[in-house]
Write the structure tokens for this entry.
Amino acid sequence: MEQWKDDGKMTISVVITVYNDEQYLHRCLESILNQTFENLEIILINDGSSDNSGNICNEYKLRDSRVKVVHRSNEGTVAARRCGLACARGQLISFIDGDDWIEKDMYEHLIDVYNHSEYPDMISSGLIYEYPKSGIRSIALDGVPAKRYSKHEIRQSILPVLIYDPVAGQNSVLTSVCTKLIKKTVAQKAMEYMKTSLSLGEDGAYVYFLMANCGSLSIIHKAFYHYEQHEGSQNYKFDPNAFEKLIRLEHTMIEGMKKQVWSEEIRGQIEYFVLGYLGRLVEKNFHFRIRKYAYLFPFSKCERERNIIVYGAGIVGKSYIQNLRQTKYAKRILWADKNYVELRANGINVISIEEAIKEDFDYIVIAVKNKGVAQEIIEDLKQYQIDREKIVWEYPSSIAEFFVRENKVGNKELFD
């Protein structure tokens, strides 16, 4: 039996949630035990499995002294991870699902990044999707550049487009918690906002709360975590209670973010996240595909083939720009924002409103969701003596809201 000694080095507590994973659990645990970085605490949370998973957990506990096992009644992934966090004594936390596996050098590489990038609160890496039936393998990486991000950069450049950046066409950071290495203090704080009743989209909710509590983040464009898509995976299951679970997911995320870094941009991201699940449910069960713009441009307020200034570069503004570019609706598009200097430094190609109105334009479309903010912008625009008929604002509608309103289907409470 291997003897594990805490020699003062950095320890990673690996929390593995196990539920009826007997077919895959040996592969998962072998990939962890064989890591080239050995200073691990391996915590197996057997969440009420009815198959042989519990015995497999006990088998590995006898094989390696680094392994701890907790057997408990089934309460779901959030409760199991919370239990694992309570047991953990390592300074850093990693979460693994019992039916997945990791590359043998994953933790060695992540610890190296941790030690050489000023000990960030969290490290995010890539994901390898495995499709065993077809033999297809695809790699997903975070959408933002690989580097170390400060708290300010996280709030300004990552959180507002964490789920989806309509301009870039991808999310800034993968919403899998299993691709992250997290300081225990941050993992515990973020867990305070999670509800054990969540059973759909819980990874995305937790990653959002982790980001909101991060003082620093390192992104690396390498993938170590293998996520197998099999018939037992959540993505392949039909769930008649899915709509109720979506409502619970949205309410949990909104309630949690209100207590932290709440803004209208964040709400738009949450709506888009929920819409993603809604789209998959509709497509899988009704064979109808919902195209997912975060917000719809107010086409009815602007004539086609006109010069349009989009004023605002948050999630609404990015959605409007994407709408206009894809539909080729406008003759010319100008994109302006009050914080154009900072936004340009972050790679978003916007100009000042003063520069924009020097050009020939037919409409200024205000791209914000908050009515009070829109009214303030309209008042500010008066100083430029712009014809009021050229200024357009209407409450932005997401595709999900439009779908429910126009077709009278689904549960409207989901989007209120």
Notes: Confidence is low (pLDDT under 50) at residues 1-7, 402-416. DSSP finds 14 helices and 14 strands in the chain. The radius of gyration is 24 Å. The first helix runs from residue 25 to 33.
